[in-house]
Amino acid sequence: DLGGPQAPGSRFQEETARVALDVAEMTGGGLFVLFTSHRALRGVAEVLRKWEDEGVGGPYPLFVQGEAPRVHLLRRFVDSGRGILLGTSSFWEGVDVPGDPLRGLILQKLPFQVPTEPIIAARMEAMEARGEDPFWRYSLPEAALRLKQGFGRLIRTRDDRGVVLVLDDRILTRRYGLYLRQSLPPAPMAKGMWINLKGTLEEFYVGR
After folding, report:
1. d(CA 24, CA 1)
2. pTM of the model
3. Across residues 138-167, what is the average pLDDT?
């Protein structure tokens, strides 16, 4: 029931911020929120800080990629024990926060590469010239790999436990959604309106 990536104005950023705060209330923080663009990241950071100034943001330190070196953000996130970290591309892979410091993960959008970037555009044009479908042969497998990498930020050891939220409904509504879901490690899946999923998540975290 979220507006999704195609929602006008700042609606999706505000919805992402609201979901992040709702989940932080369940987990006591310890939350990564990963984005596919710096613009979306900055938009959600702005909303969260506005709410904090208004006294409705909760006691969750906010760590934003671009405002400090990655290693410093991660160390401060772990040390806080209850932070919310907003990250983009470099946080989808190669970031290890095992154990209790990371208790939840939100992926705002499916990680498709921007098709207008010169290198990406050149690869896709070359595939089209060979009579291949660049979306199914290149864009989709790349997105599946990146989605799996992002998903893997949460579970780093056998004892890790938590919830991964995907806010982009294209993983359910588009024909390629099944391909993306099957690329992920086996895990129970729940879907539905956020007001209903909140109850499912609350039950999960109560039983941690």
Report:
1. 20
2. 0.91
3. 89
